Amino acid sequence: MPSDAAKQLATALAIGLGAIGPGIGIGIIGGKAVEALGRNPEAEASIRTTMILAIAFAEAVAIYALVIALILKFV
CATH number, domain at 46? Predict the structure, then answer.
């Protein structure tokens, strides 16, 4: 059985590392969407829809990391 300190470290690493990727990805998505709007403002509806969908997929990865962290913490 792992020690409590090892469990806490694993939990922190799981959510910490699991949130870095989606955080960077959402930042890049938002930046590119604003850049695309600057180039082609008429396509705002299409760009916004695609951006929100991409952000939702990126956020799903962070939610999976949170679930793993909670499993590690309480099991």
Answer: 1.20.20.10
Query: What is the per-residue pLDDT across 62-73, written as a single tens digit (0 to 9) for each?
Result: 999 999 999 999
> Could you tell me the residue range of the domain that residue 67 belongs to?
4-74
Residues 3 and 53 sit within 8 Å (Cβ to Cβ): no
Q: Which pLDDT tens digit goes with each residue over 8-66?
A: 999 999 999 999 999 999 999 999 999 999 999 999 999 999 999 999 999 999 999 99
End-to-end, the C-alpha distance of the chain in Å comes to: 11
